[in-house]
Structure formats: structure tokens, C-alpha cells
Specification:
The chain is an alpha+beta fold and 144 residues long. The longest helix has 13 residues.
Length: 144
């Protein structure tokens, strides 16, 4: 699968709340990197098994209902794409709307994601989830 196909598939899985299928797109030794991680938030999640665990409860934290404006930019490196999209939905714990813009730099080798650098704003997420501490607790494994 080409990198653009992998990204389209990943976005479909997010929209469908199929976190297992989403995590299955990673190579066994694939990694998610969060360059803008707040203090206490994981900066890296390494390995497909860890990514499965990290994504397991995602729909209970953020109920993504729509992904809009997905734009995939191919780069000079055939294995690397840059994707821009907006996710919209609801925070199940509060019922508040959630809308956030994302940019990711994704490396795909042999049809599997090897690196997913996720450039999202913890401060923007905190507006929907309540606070930066709530974001950190939700995604750092301190889920209720």
C-alpha cells in the first residue's frame, strides 16, 4: 500500500472508531511521536502493541464523528507524507463539542507506518477536555 492509501485507511478507521484496525497499520516496531507534548504527556509510544494499548480507549475520550479537509502532501521522499485534517466530535465525559486541527508527518515502509509524528495542540485539546491535566490524564494512561 502506498503512503497515501495508508493515510486514507487510517482516517477511515478513526472515523469508524476502529482503534484496533488503526493500530494494526503500524509496523511491529513503529512509533508515534508527539513533538508538542505537554509535561507529563507521553512524548513517544513505541511498538505496535504499545500503540494498541494507547489507542484502546480513544473513543471514550474523544468521539470523533467527522474528519474534514483531509489534505495529503507527498514529499520528495516516496515513503513520507504530510497530512492535514480537522477532527470534530464530542467529548463523551462532558458532552462538549470537540474540534481540532492536526498535522502529521507519516513515514510508511512496506505498507506499514514506521513513524507518525503527531503535531497537535494540547492547549486546544484542553479547551474541550477541561484542562491540560485532563488531557494528560486521559492520554497518559490515567483513564477512569
Amino acid at each position: 500500500m502506498k503512503p497515501t492509501d495508508v493515510v486514507h485507511t487510517a482516517l477511515q478507521h478513526l472515523r469508524a472508531h476502529d482503534m484496533s484496525a488503526f493500530a494494526d497499520l503500524w509496523a511491529v516496531d513503529g512509533v508515534i511521536v508527539f513533538p508538542f507534548a505537554a509535561a507529563g504527556y507521553p512524548r513517544r509510544v513505541e511498538g505496535r502493541a504499545a500503540i494498541h494499548e494507547y489507542m484502546r480507549g480513544y473513543p471514550e475520550i474523544l468521539d470523533i464523528r467527522n474528519i474534514t479537509s483531509p489534505t495529503i502532501h507527498e514529499t520528495a521522499d516516496a515513503e513520507v507524507v504530510v497530512v492535514e485534517f480537522e477532527a470534530a466530535g464530542v467529548v463523551p465525559a462532558t458532552g462538549k463539542p470537540y474540534e481540532l486541527a492536526y498535522i502529521a508527518v507519516i513515514t510508511v515502509r512496506d505498507g506499514a507506518i514506521t513513524t507518525y509524528k503527531d503535531y497537535w495542540s494540547p492547549l486546544a485539546a484542553a479547551e474541550a477536555l477541561g484542562s491540560v491535566d485532563d488531557v494528560t490524564a486521559a492520554f497518559a494512561g490515567d483513564r477512569a
